[in-house]
Design a protein that fits this description.
Blueprint lengths: L11 H11 L5 H19 L8 E4 L2 E3 L1 H9 L11 H14 L4 H9 L2 H7 L10 E3 L1 H14 L29 H9 L1
Helix pairs in contact: 1-2, 1-4, 2-4, 2-5, 2-7, 5-8
Length: about 190
């Protein structure tokens, strides 16, 4: 894929194509959870969204509802746009960090995280929920994740290669390595 220097968000369809290119045989559930992580990390590092569509908190975790509807019902797909270097860096990081997990693992993981829990707090466990997950909540949560990463020195925020600019915030639980993620999911 050609690298662009544009600085505005692309469509979730564009981000989904890039994720799918890196993970053959990617299922819908896993795709939507990975897009949630792409959006969250990009917001934390860049201060702006990767894609413009809203993420909703559904019973099985975060879903980009517009993308889901378009793929499920053959809806309109916007003209393809290339991702810039920072966007590609974010997608690469998310795929390397979360790509080995199954869709079910990612559902369990997202259910432990504040953005999804906060959006669903007024819904019962058997109720349909389609509340939006606010971008500010995503950005704040992932900034805290980045600040608490074991890869970081105190007070500094390092990013994966290809991702520029960043923001810091108070620390949160470390889920930066595969063993920690598995432990959190199985808890």
């Amino acid at each position: 894929m050609r690298v662009d220097t544009r600085s505005g968000p692309v469509s979730a369809h564009d981000a989904a194509r890039e994720v799918a290119a890196r993970l053959p045989r990617l299922g819908e559930v896993k795709l939507h959870k990975l897009l949630y992580y792409c959006q969250g990390w990009h917001l934390a590092w860049m201060g702006s969204p990767l894609f413009h569509e809203e993420i909703e908190a559904w019973a099985n975790g975060p879903v980009v509802a517009d993308l889901w509807r378009a793929r499920k019902h053959g809806g309109e797909v916007p003209a393809a746009q290339d991702l810039d270097a920072a966007m590609l860096g974010t997608v690469g990081y998310v795929v390397s960090r979360y790509g080995a997990f199954s869709g079910s693992d990612l559902i369990r993981l997202t259910h432990t995280e504040d953005p999804w829990r906060d959006a669903t707090e007024l819904s019962g466990p058997d109720e349909r929920c389609d509340e939006p997950i606010e971008q500010k909540a995503l950005q704040s949560f992932f900034e805290k994740q980045a600040a608490s990463s074991s890869e970081l020195s105190p007070g500094a925020l390092r990013r994966p290669r290809g991702v520029r600019e960043a923001h810091t915030s108070a620390p949160r639980a470390n889920v930066d390595d595969l063993d920690s993620l598995r432990a959190l999911i199985s808890a």
